[in-house]
Design brief:
- It is a single chain.
- The chain is mainly alpha-helical.
- The chain has one domain.
- It is elongated and about 65 Å long.
Length: about 210
C-alpha cells in the first residue's frame, strides 16, 4: 500500500502541473497577454496571426512554422534557430502531455482501486498529498521570484541539449513571449496548481473521510 500511496502522490500532482502548463499553448491565453509587455510595442508582424500559427503548430494543426508577417506574406519571419528550437519545444510538449496522460491513468486507476479496497488508505493518501506540492511550490515559486533568470536558464539546460533557445531580443518568439511572460505564466500555473491541490484536500476531508467511518 505504501508504494501505491507514493505513486498516487507523484502521478496526480504531475498531471495537474502539465494540465495547467498546457494553458500556455491555447490561443485565448496568448490573446489575453497581447499588448501587455513592452516587447509587444516592437512587433511589426500580424500579432494575432502569429499567435494562431504558433499555437496551431504546437497543437498539431500545422506541420511547420513557415509563415510570414501577414497571411498574404510568403517570407518566413522566424530565423532558422527559432524554427529548430520550436521543433524541440513541440517534441518536449508532446512527451510531457503523453507522460501526463499516463500519470492520470495510473494515478486515477490506483485511486479507484484504493476506494474499492481500503477507503481509509485512500483518505490517508490524499491527506498527505499536499506535502510534496507545498515544497515544490515554495521552492520553484521562491526561485522564480528571487532569481528568475537563473531558474529560466536552468529549465532550458535541463530540457534542451542545444543552445537554440538562446535567442535575440528582436526574434519573433522573444517579442511575442518575453521573459516576463514566462515569469507571470509560471506564477499563474503555481497558483492554479496550489488551488487544485487545496481543493482535492478539502474534498478528501469532506467526502472520503466520512466514508471511512
Amino acid at each position: 500500500m505504501r508504494l501505491i500511496r507514493i505513486i498516487i502522490n507523484i502521478t496526480i500532482p504531475f498531471f495537474l502541473v502539465i494540465l495547467f502548463a498546457s494553458l500556455l499553448t491555447t490561443k485565448p491565453y496568448l490573446m489575453l497577454s497581447k499588448g501587455l509587455y513592452d516587447s509587444h510595442d516592437d512587433i511589426t508582424f500580424d500579432h494575432e496571426y502569429a499567435i494562431e500559427r504558433v499555437i496551431g503548430y504546437l497543437n498539431y494543426r500545422y506541420d511547420d512554422l513557415d509563415f510570414g508577417a501577414t497571411p498574404e506574406d510568403d517570407d518566413i519571419i522566424m530565423r532558422d534557430t527559432e524554427l529548430r528550437h520550436m521543433v524541440d519545444v513541440k517534441n518536449l510538449y508532446t512527451y510531457l502531455r503523453l507522460a501526463a496522460l499516463g500519470a492520470l491513468l495510473i494515478g486515477g486507476s490506483l485511486s479507484y482501486y484504493l476506494y474499492r479496497k481500503d477507503k481509509n488508505e485512500l483518505y490517508q493518501t490524499y491527506r498527505t498529498m499536499p506535502l510534496f506540492p507545498i515544497f515544490f511550490i515554495l521552492f520553484v515559486g521562491g526561485y522564480m521570484i528571487i532569481d528568475f533568470d537563473t531558474a529560466f536558464t536552468a529549465f532550458h539546460l535541463i530540457f534542451f541539449n542545444n543552445d537554440d533557445w538562446i535567442l535575440y531580443a528582436d526574434d519573433v518568439l522573444i517579442q511575442m513571449l518575453p521573459q516576463m511572460f514566462w515569469m507571470v505564466s509560471g506564477l499563474i500555473i503555481l497558483a492554479l496548481f496550489s488551488a487544485t491541490i487545496a481543493g482535492l484536500y478539502a474534498l478528501n476531508e469532506k467526502i472520503v473521510k466520512k466514508r471511512t467511518m
